[in-house]
Amino acid sequence: MAERAARRCCLGWDFSTQQVKVVAVDADLNVFYEDSVHFDRDLPEFGTQGGVHVHKDGVTVTSPVLMWVQALDIILEKMKASGFDFSQVLALSGAGQQHGSIYWKAGASRVLTRLSPDLPLHQQLQACFSISDCPVWMDSSTATQCRQLEAAVGGAQALSCLTGSRAYERFTGNQIAKVYQQNPEAYSHTERISLVSSFAASLFLGAYSPIDYSDGSGMNLLQIQDKVWSQACLGACAPHLEEKLGPPVPSCSVVGAVSSYYVQRYGFAPGCKVVAFTGDNPASLAGMRLEEGDIAVSLGTSDTLFLWLREPTPALEGHIFCSPVDARHYMALLCFKNGSLMREKIRDESASRSWIEFSKALRSTEMGNGGNLGFYFDVMEITPEIIGRHRFNAENHKVSAFPKDVEVRALIEGQFMAKRIHAEGLGYRVMPKTKILATGGASHNRDILQVLADVFGAPVYVIDTANSACVGSAYRAFHGLAGGTDVPFSEVVKLASNPTLAATPSPGASQVYEALLPQYARLEQRLLSQAQGSPE
Length: 536
Ligand code: XUL
Prior knowledge:
This is Xylulose kinase. By secondary structure, the chain is of the alpha+beta class. Helices cover 39% and strands 21% of the residues.
């Protein structure tokens, strides 16, 4: 225990929707401590469900800011009680659920700088917020503000080109605009607005932490190319917003040292550095150690893609953020709603409710499925906005059914071809060094991963991402400590254990899919035009 406690380390924090988590990662990049505080379970007095309050209108979703503060108090006390040696922490960083906003009341900065080590944070910060229930990413109550913002900058595509995304209801600029419109008094009493990430960093700094470029990209306010706030967007959302946000910084910036509160109360070293906190998705990208040309595919209820991009082409779908590990590059997020539930339905209908039979069907059919292509969207898809099941034979004629094994392959090939097509739509290119990192339920099925490797023409690795935002935050702390911008992130994390190789492309795969991908894209376009009621 003494030997373990004396390890030099970095801490990675994650302020997620349901809990606050922490990991300690040593200089060999091994995780040797982890802990968490669960909001519903450990702080029932706040009455949250899943860490949030869903309001009566069904679309407003908030979380109490003091619940987050108190969760930090509890977890630090737990660490202290376990004998954790805070003096060995060289640096810390963290992640926050994206898009949520915190409103610091005029005078709060003075309270933050004068914290007494004798009292927990939540007792001292009680009067520091002009809004006690913060809008979070699950909120979808700002449709009006979204339309106003898009109109102000020349439309949805123009906003996407500027900020990386068209207007989204959960994005912070639109949330701030709503606060300003509906609660102008609280807005005018606000001296600083933080994201969940920069708020958590501020608690450690004892001063306002700047917003980092990567999480700042989830606000519909930051010009992702120039890394400055867009005056047009700020002006469309609320007055005096620039001074309330403060200037954004590169994600690997050291924003200061921990406040004396942590030194005196917990025994942190006075020089322990705080590296800018970022969003949970960017932090996960760091945790998965994505590199240029790589793609991470999370195969869950919805399927999510994380892409590394050099030259993004922002679109009406997906989100482009500044990269959290390389300020010259970008990452993109794409969400596909028809993921696991769709795979399970087709398994039940066409593979006797068995993954073994499902795998057999994949193995007994050929790459390219004899030209048979399918679209399976039992719920309205996001990427693209199409609903229903649509099957086409090799002559591009619509057919009403496929033989069972053809149906299984059509589903999986279709899901992965859609991912490649939409990733390329955002500027993604498969490179010779491309790796695909697969996570989530379906990543346990080697035959599904084989199709993924074939469609992308790249090897597929599996990784466990249970703690990726936390671990990625600790990696980012090491990155900041090593000098940040001038040091490649990949150098800093080279000691971390490698993901497991699960599938490599079959011979001939690229010819098959190079021919099929444009055909799939054309059919998708045809379905989309039909859905929108326009002529083909
Ligand atoms: C991303 C998003 C969610 C939250 C979850 O745009 O809204 O993934 O970051 O914490």
